[in-house]
Amino acid sequence: MALKNSSKPKKIGVVGVGSFGAAIANMLAEKNEVMVYARKEEIVEEINSVHTASGREINPSIQATFDPEELCRSCNILFFMVPSAAFVDVVRRFAPHLYPFHLIIHGTKGLALNLGPGESLETVQKLRRSQILTMSEVILQETVSVRVGCLAGPNISKELSLGQPAATVIASKYNEVILEGQRLLRSEKFQVYGNSDIIGVELSGVLKNIIAIAAGAIAGLGLGENAKGLLISRGMVEMVHLSKALGGSVQSVIGLAGVGDLVTTCNSVDSRNFTVGFRLAKGETLDQILSTMDEVAEGVNTVRIIDAFIKTAGIRAPITENLHRVLFEDLPIAEALHFLMKYPFSVDVDFV
Ligand SMILES: NC(=O)C1=CN([C@@H]2O[C@H](COP(=O)(O)OP(=O)(O)OC[C@H]3O[C@@H](n4cnc5c(N)ncnc54)[C@H](O)[C@@H]3O)[C@@H](O)[C@H]2O)C=CC1
Ligand SMILES: O=C(CO)COP(=O)(O)O
């Protein structure tokens, strides 16, 4: 049955109530009626009865459903807040219930692959740009929605949940999406900037996770602030080159969603990506770390994807390449660091 976009006021939908989804749903609920989607019936039950989701506090005004159709019928604006590994599946579950009037903003800082049947990263090994999708590209590919945006910036969910001041970027080709995001989320504690370069903003949030793993490793090795400053500035240059090669602008990388989030994530013990690097430097294996983390560290998969992209892009990205060898080829962190210190970086800023 075709759905009409009635003039009845709609709720705001949030898909995924993990760490970030719960924080954003609660912020949206300060000014709006909110409905959240969780795939597990017991989480829906927990939210509707005791107003928590896996123990995280949920504003009592928020209703939960595990029915994508109900969420799409009740809401014109949907925030997708699930990890990239589940993103394509989740979007496909929603696609039959989405109409062009739906406006979608996602908060996911990861990438997906666009490969042929039977192909995987292991079989192809090298990736072209057309084989990599940002989450907005997944939404455009899988649904009839066109008014798509992303939300990215220094937004550690624990700090947002404590009501600490922060800011974010809503990026979209459609000004209407930016204005709606600002209207829904802006408050005295939360500033919302706009940017029309959605690909550049998505890539900024994705690529900073690589550098955050490396920053965690530097901290885990007991190195100082000079080393961290070196990593952050070279990391930013690497992000600029990668983002340009993938279709983003330099401006977005040097803005809040790029440098802003890079500085935050490289300094926060609450960052899951930083934590992965820290624990690696303390001697744990990647398998040990991932099997004991409840939440997602997107940077691990991003390193694999970007390392495979570098092989076709004709650019060097020494931090990513060395981190790939540490994560997946057993290169000791101290050796990776030694290699980077010998790397012939000679020009400080070569992109402006
Ligand atoms: N936590 C943070 O501070 C921030 C996270 N992000 C990004 O937000 C995204 C989500 O991260 P978190 O909420 O932190 O992750 P999380 O690991 O805390 O939660 C992920 C949520 O997605 C749900 N999920 C997983 N697979 C699903 C599926 N197939 N169908 C439906 N739901 C599914 C899980 O049940 C869980 O509720 C990531 O891309 C992350 O990079 C962005 C900014 C801040
Ligand atoms: O993106 C984030 C903060 O802006 C969260 O970083 P982590 O995913 O590393 O926790």
Features:
352 residues; alpha/beta; Rossmann fold; 12 strands; globular; binds 1,4-dihydronicotinamide adenine dinucleotide; binds 1,3-dihydroxyacetonephosphate; EC 1.1.1.94
**Total domain units:** 2
Shape: globular
Strand content: 5-15%
Number of strands: 12
Strand order of the largest sheet: 5-2-1-6-7-10-11-12
| Biggest sheet details | 8 strands, mixed
CATH class of the largest domain: Alpha Beta
**Architecture of the largest domain, according to CATH?**
3-Layer(aba) Sandwich
Question: Which cofactors or ions or other ligands sit in this model?
Answer: 1,4-dihydronicotinamide adenine dinucleotide, 1,3-dihydroxyacetonephosphate
Number of helices: 17
**Topology as a string of helices (H) and strands (E):** EHEHEEEHEHEEHEHEHEHEHHHHHHHHH
What does this structure look like?
This protein has 352 residues and is α/β, with parallel strands linked by helices. The protein has 2 domains: 11-196, Rossmann fold; 200-342, N-(1-d-carboxylethyl)-l-norvaline Dehydrogenase, domain 2 (Orthogonal Bundle). 51% of the residues lie in helices and 14% in strands. It contains 17 helices and 12 strands. The chain has helices spanning 19-28, 41-50, 68-74, 84-94, 121-124, 135-142, 157-161, 175-185, 198-220, 225-246, 250-253, 256-267, 272-281, 286-291, 299-313, 318-328, 333-342, and strands spanning 11-15, 34-37, 52-53, 56-57, 63-65, 75-80, 103-106, 112-113, 132-133, 148-152, 166-172, 190-195. The strands form 3 sheets. It has an 8-stranded mixed β-sheet, sandwiched between helices. A two-stranded antiparallel sheet has the order 3-4. Strands 8-9 form a two-stranded antiparallel sheet. Helix 9 packs antiparallel against helix 10 (225-246), helix 9 (198-220) packs parallel to helix 12 and helix 15 (299-313) crosses helix 16. It is globular and about 65 Å long. The model has no long low-confidence stretch (mean pLDDT 96). It binds 1,4-dihydronicotinamide adenine dinucleotide and 1,3-dihydroxyacetonephosphate. 1,4-dihydronicotinamide adenine dinucleotide is lined by residues 16-21, 39, 81-84, 86, 89-90, 107-110, 155-157, 295-296, 298. 1,3-dihydroxyacetonephosphate (13P) binds next to helix 9, helix 12 and helix 13.
